[in-house]
Amino acid sequence: MTPIKAALIDLSGTLHVEDQPTAGAVDALQRLRAAGVAVKFVTNTTKESVGSLYDRLVAIGFQLERKEIYGSLTAAADYVKSNALNPYYILTDDARKDFPEGDSSRGHDSVVVGLAPERFSYEYINEAFRILQQSKGSARLVAIHEGKFYKTKQGISVGPGCFVKGLEYSSGVKSVCIGKPNEYFFRSALPSGVDPSECCMIGDDPSDDCLGAMAVGMRGFLVETGKYQPELYDKDSLPKVSGIFRNFAAVVEHIIERVNV
């Protein structure tokens, strides 16, 4: 197979779970760079601004540059700016820092939904519904991503996808999904001069990470440290990805073995 020249790496559930790196991940990232593989960190994380996420990763031992992080928050903020939207946000206060200031001189013309557990209440969801419903179809529903669930220290937790789908159902407005597994997101994250066949995606979500990347010609390597739950599958129903590994460090070993093939 074509040697891998670049790796797109998911963060939460792959490199770390909250404030704990996955086993061997810090050293494995350094080894991957030393092997000459270009890296970019692609994430659907929407609870934290890019700045806060970068600070967290550095604090727990990872060596990276802030500009190497390409997240759905950044892509969604670009979408809001390019379409001159004035959204009602269902986001954490920290994530909201990455978006333009609201315009109080005009009403909301859109709703932006990210992972904001403290705002997934009837009050916020109902306000978003009213904006969408009263616009008679002109308002946009922007889903930063539609993740079903994610991994925390307490276990698997509900993601924003069900709230996005609930708003779609009640308002009749179809959402625009910005983050993974959107094809545009993966192609935008691809390093310059690298063909998709020379790139892999490493993540903990069989669909949004691996199959999404494979749809544009990349390889999709799945890790078992995050939301993927191998115990829910039998041998014949395993996700049809490029490879399943116990953790990020094991994927790196696999890649390095083939860099000079």
UniProtKB/TrEMBL annotation:
- Which compartments is it annotated to reside in? Cytoplasm; Nucleus
* Chief location: cytoplasm
- Say yes or no: keyword Transmembrane helix present: no
Q: Which Pfam families does the record cross-reference, listed alphabetically?
A: Hydrolase_6 (PF13344), Hydrolase_like (PF13242)
Gene Ontology MF terms in the entry:
inorganic diphosphate phosphatase activity; metal ion binding; phosphatase activity
EC number(s) from the headed UniProt entry: 3.6.1.1
Q: Which cofactor does it need?
A: Mg(2+)
The answer, when asked if Metal-binding is one of the entry's keywords, is yes
- From the UniProt record, list the reaction(s) this protein catalyses: diphosphate + H2O = 2 phosphate + H(+)
Gene Ontology CC terms: cytoplasm; nucleus
Q: Which SUPFAM superfamilies match?
A: HAD-like
Task: Cite the entry's keywords alphabetically.
Answer: Cytoplasm, Hydrolase, Magnesium, Metal-binding, Nucleus
Sorted alphabetically, which InterPro entries does this protein's record hold? Answer: HAD-like_sf, HAD-SF_hydro_IIA, HAD_sf, LHPP/HDHD2
Q: Which family does it belong to?
A: Belongs to the HAD-like hydrolase superfamily.
The job of this chain, per UniProt, is described as: Phosphatase that hydrolyzes imidodiphosphate, 3-phosphohistidine and 6-phospholysine. Has broad substrate specificity and can also hydrolyze inorganic diphosphate, but with lower efficiency.
Q: What is this protein called?
A: Haloacid dehalogenase-like hydrolase domain-containing protein 2
Which lineage do the record's taxonomy fields give for this organism?
Eukaryota, Metazoa, Ecdysozoa, Arthropoda, Hexapoda
* Gene that specifies this protein: 6037220
